[in-house]
Amino acid sequence: MITGNACVLDDAVIDIAFDTKPLVIGGLAMAYYGLRKRGADIDLIIADKDYQALAKKYPQNKMDRWGDLAVSIGSFQLLRSIYRLDYDFYAQGAIEHEKLRVVSFEKFLFMKALAFWSQPEPPKHGDDFTLVMNRYLGAHQNAAYVENAMKHVAAYQAVPNGIVLNDGY
Q: Which of 89, 101, 105, 148 could potentially form a cystine with 94 if both were Cys, beta carbons 3.0 to 4.6 Å apart?
């Protein structure tokens, strides 16, 4: 079981033995990080060895999206790669749990940027990207710099590109 910010995954839901812990991404990761509720499907990135075993066991459920291979089983999308970046890439810095891992927030931000960059539609990609980006910036921006910038919003909006020259607020 994985819990985090009112997000729960019951391991009994999927009856698959993995050689390597699957990596939680997608809507379940959004819920894990407290950004929004997850949808009905569960997206996981799996190691190639696990993909090969599942592809052999469920050949009728295989998918190929521009070289990114996956197996769809019920509500689970078990992906070998996204943008041909594999499990080892996305698992860097992942949060460990007993039977699975959760993609790190930094890798998740990268994934959302890829989704938005490659397919700005549907609007969900843009909405998700905005949620993730706001969380990231909120966690890392210098609070004093933000406070100072907020004092001058009207001036930034009044000039081209928001650039104020020579303290001309």
A: 101
